[in-house]
Amino acid sequence: MPRDYYEVLGLSRNASEQDIKKAFRRMAMKYHPDRNPDDAEALTKFKEAKEAHDILTDPRKRSAYDQFGHAGVSGQGGGGPGDFGAGGFSDIFGDVFGDIFGGRAGGRRTHRGTDLRYELSLTLEEAVAGKDVSIRIPTTVECHHCGGSGAKPGTKPKECGTCHGHGQVRMQQGFFSIQQTCPTCRGTGSVIEEPCRHCRGSGRLREEKTLSVKVPPGVDTGDRIRLAGEGELGEQGGPPGDLYVQVMVQEHPIFTREESHLFCEVPISFATAALGGEMEVPTLSGKVMLKVPAGTQTGKMFRMRGKGVKPVRGGPVGDLICRVIVETPVNLTERQKELLRELNDTLASGGKHHSPHSTSWLDGVKHFFEKMGL
User: Fold this and answer.
1) Sign of the CA dihedral 193, 199, 202, 203?
2) Mean pLDDT of 193-216
3) What phi and psi, each to the nearest 5 degrees, are found at residue 130?
4) Strands 204-215 and 190-191
5) Can you name the residues that pair with 191 across neighbouring β-strands?
6) Which of 64, 178, 297, 299 can bridge 82 by disulfide, Cβ–Cβ 3.0-4.6 Å?
7) Any idea which architecture 252-328 has in CATH?
8) For a pLDDT cut of 70, what percent of the chain falls above it?
C-alpha cells in the first residue's frame, strides 16, 4: 500500500499549494538521482515525493485523494491518477454500470490515450530567463500503413457477427436482461480478419516525435507545463492524452533559490571585514558592487533588491541576499605571523573598544564560573 502523500512530504492535510511545492523542492534537492547515483533508497524517496507532488498540486486529484484516499486516484484508461475527466472516474462508472444498463451510446467503447511525463532539466539561468526547448519523446501514433484501422492495407474491419456492430450483447438472466460488452469484439463493434503486419492489428505504432516546449520565465523545480493532446494516441479512435513536462532545476554552484529570492555566500578577507571596502559580486543579470562597512562580522546579510527572480505566476521580482563569510588567512609566512601577533597585542590592549562581542562573552563566562563557585 502506498504511503500517505501528506506523510511523504511531511505536511498536514490542510497544507497550501505553496507549502506542497516548497516541501517537494526540499526533497527533490535532497533525493534527486543526479545527487545520489546508485542509491536505490534515495530514488524511491524521490519517486514518492514526485508522485505526491503531482497529485496534491492538482486540485481535482487532491480533492479525490482527500475523499477516497489512494483508491480515488488509482486511475483507469489513460486519464492518470485521480483524473475525473475522460479516462478517469467516467470510465470506472461506465465499466461498472454501462454494461448492466447499456449506458454507452452506440455501444462502441473508446479509451482516452495515456498521459505522458517528461522530466526537463534546466540550469538556474534557463529557469529564471525562460527559453524554447526541443524535446524528443517516445509516443504512440496512428499506423500510417493501415490508417489506424488495424486491418491489412486493402482490407477493412468487418462488422462483428456476434453483436452486429453494436459492441454490446444482451443476455437474459432470470427476470433481468443484462447488456454487457461483446466478448468477440470487446466493444469495438468490428473484427479484424487480416491484421496489419506493421501494427499487428492495434492501429498504432511506437515512434519518437520532436516537440517544441516554451518554458516561461521564473519556473522552478516541481512546476509542470501541459501540452494538450501530445500524449499517447487513444484506442479505438479515442482522444489522445496530454504530455506533462516536469521541470527540474539543476543545483547552481553559486546561488540557491527560495521562492523568488536568491541566496549566495560571499567570502571576504579579514582586512576587508575590519576596514570596509567594495567588492564585485555576481547576479543573474551581471556584476554589481557590494559595499562592505568597516567592522563587518561573519554571517552579515546584505540585500540587493530586485536582483532575484520574477515568479512565473506573477508578483514582484525577488531579491539577492548575500551572506558574507570572513575568511581566516592560511599558510602564513613568518613575517605575516609576526605582524598578526603585533596586531593582536594592540587589539588586546584596547579590550572592549576593539572586541565588544568577545569581551562581553568573556565577562559572561567569568560571571557563570563565579555563580557556579568554580
Assistant:
1) negative
2) 83
3) 80, 155
4) unpaired
5) 158
6) 64
7) Sandwich (2.60)
8) 80
248 touches 117 (CB < 8 A): no
Question: Judging by beta carbons within 10 Å of its beta carbon (0-12, 13-18, 19+), is residue 12 exposed, middle or buried?
Answer: exposed
Q: Which residue has the cell 487513444?
A: 234
Query: What CA–CA distance (Å, rounded) separates 92 from 77?
Result: 9
Specify the CATH superfamily of domain 110-157+195-250: Urease metallochaperone UreE, N-terminal domain (2.60.260.20)
Q: Which helix (H) or strand (E) holds 171?
A: strand 168-173
- Helices of type H across 102-204: 124-129
Give the separation between CA 93 and CA 115, rounded to whole angstroms: 20
Residue spans of the domains in the chain: they are 110-157+195-250, 252-328, 334-374
User: Could you give phi then psi for residue 7, rounded to 5 degrees?
Assistant: -65, -40
Domains 110-157+195-250 and 252-328 equal at CATH topology level: yes
153 HSE (CA, 13 A, CB side):
8
- Counting residues of the chain whose pLDDT is more than 90, the rounded percentage is 18
Least confident of 19-33, 175-189, 303-317: 175-189
Interatomic CA distance for residues 84 and 76, integer angstroms? 10
Cα–Cα distance between 245 and 85 in angstroms, integer? 20
75 pLDDT exceeds 60? Answer: no
Beta-carbon contacts of residue 141 (< 8 Å; ≥ 6 apart): 204, 205, 207, 209, 233
pLDDT at 65 over 70: yes
Mean pLDDT, all residues of the chain: 79
Residue 355 or residue 193, greater confidence: 193
Pairing of strands 176-181, 168-173: antiparallel
Cα–Cα dist 53/236, whole Å: 32
* Residue 283 pLDDT greater than 60, yes or no: yes
Cell of 155: 482490407
Place of cell 498540486: 57
Residue 372's pLDDT is what?
67
Per the model's pLDDT, the better-predicted residue between 300 and 199 turns out to be 300
